[in-house]
Amino acid sequence: MIEVTPAQRRARLGWRHRLAAEALAASPVEVARDLVALHGTDPSSVYLAAWARMRDGDVAAAVHRALYEERSLIRLMAMRRTVFVTSLDVAPVLQAACSRAVAARERRKLESMLAAVGVAEDVEGVRRWLDETEQIALRALRDRGEATASELATDDPRLGVEVVIGGAGNQGRQHVASRMLLLLAAEGKVVRGRPRGSWTSHQHTWSPLERWTPGGLAEWDTAQAEVELGRRWLTAFGPGAEQDLAWWAGWSKTQVRRVLAALGAVAVDLGDGSSGYLLPEDLEPAPEPQPWAALLPALDSTPMGWRQRDWFLGEHGPYLFDGFGNIGPSLWWNGEIVGGWAHDRDGEIVVRFLRDVGSEAVTAAQAQAELLAGRLGGVRLTARTRGKTWLEQELSG
Fold first, then answer.
1. pLDDT single digits (tens) 244-284
2. pLDDT (tens digit, 9 = 90+) per residue, 316-359?
3. Which letter, b or e, does each residue of 363-380 get, where b requires 16 or more Cβ atoms within 10 Å of its Cβ?
4. Which among 6, 70, 283, 315 counts the fewest CB atoms within 10 Å?
5. What is the pLDDT of residue 379?
6. Three-state secondary structure along 156-169?
């Protein structure tokens, strides 16, 4: 069995994830495609992830242009019911391989919510009510061209019906329009469009998919899409274990094993007694890149790409992850997480090393912090979609 040591995995990461200086990308589309997708739950993470992996230039304008003018990047709900940003050629694969299953679960969940508030007397009545209201929502959105969920909720009484969300002790109410848009997005019928506000805004307008992307997304067979998604994940994140792919894609072990068999994936020794997989045409070791440092945002696709992270995270997990399993801002040196970063009380970007890796790393990290501060232009980042990590709390005061 071929051995791929942790050092070799870290070298591959530097190249494949566009983090080594020699591997920096020219466009945000390259970044998103090469990582399969960028986490988009926090809008600012998309920009910060691209900034960390692109050469100098007006990166913010390039990301904005790709998202909202050229529309070569698109937001969609995919793996693990999480919002991602990906390229238009990869989006249909994610839609078929992951979003369809997410949509089926979202539809059942919404049916249950509607039954609980009594929109109909029986299950079939609830389903008819939902189908009819779906068409109402799509017509209203097409008439408007684009709208927020709040705006859509005023267009028809059905869209303004409130459902109960959350569990005991943490319940809230939400308009059907909001839940409907999430469902329609998962089904590939609507898409998140421009933000209301700056690039850090969490409020987006919604548009019919065919208006945003003429022709919509290409249709893929689910099984074929799963194989293609597995191929792309192994290209970007391999070698990885079965449980890594299962966690990342939100798949069962059966799905993962079927995909690996279809790809002819080769089992390799990960150097710690465990096994991972590589594509049969991708067995050659990667050359060692020049030393590199990176400041990656919270929820970045690189650290969130594996379930087993010891080979790049070490013992730093408790300092960098919140209570829900979300990573905060992380500091990297040559393929390993060695610390974190945050805004302090004065709005300055500060970095903290969790272990001593030498003066070269300190100098490189400070240079990255200064570069990021210039790109942010005074914008203060907040942890709105997750809890603050221990290290963020320490650094921000």
1. 999 999 999 999 999 999 999 999 999 988 999 999 999 99
2. 999 999 888 899 999 999 999 999 998 887 778 999 999 999 99
3. ebbeebbeebeeebeebe
4. 315
5. 79
6. CHHHHCEEEECCCC
Question: What is the rounded distance in angstroms from the CA atom of residue 230 to the CA atom of residue 312?
Answer: 22
The count of other CB atoms within 10 Å of the CB of residue 111 is: 17
- 9, with CB counted inside 10 A (0-12, 13-18, 19+), is buried
Q: Which amino acid is at 321?
A: F
Q: Which helix (H) or strand (E) holds 369?
A: helix 359-376
Closest CA to 250 of 278, 266, 230, 274: 230
- From residue 105, alpha-carbon distances to 101, 230, 381 in Å are 6, 22, 33
Distance CA 328, CA 349 (A): 14
Whether residue 239 is preceded by a cis peptide bond, meaning omega within 30 degrees of 0, is yes
CA distances to 231, 314, 334, 364 from 360, in Å: 36, 20, 11, 6
Q: Determine the 3-state secondary structure of 145 from DSSP.
A: coil
How far is residue 177's CA from residue 344's CA, in Å, rounded to a whole number? 38
Tokens of 129: 């009510």
Rounded to whole angstroms, what are the CA distances from 49 to 35, 108, 284, 384? 10, 34, 27, 17
Token pair for 225:
């899409």
What digits encode the pLDDT tens for the residues 191-245?
Answer: 998 888 777 777 889 999 998 888 889 999 999 999 999 999 999 999 999 999 9
CA angle 149, 154, 157 (to 5 degrees): 115
Q: How far apart are CA 301 and CA 95, in angstroms?
A: 18
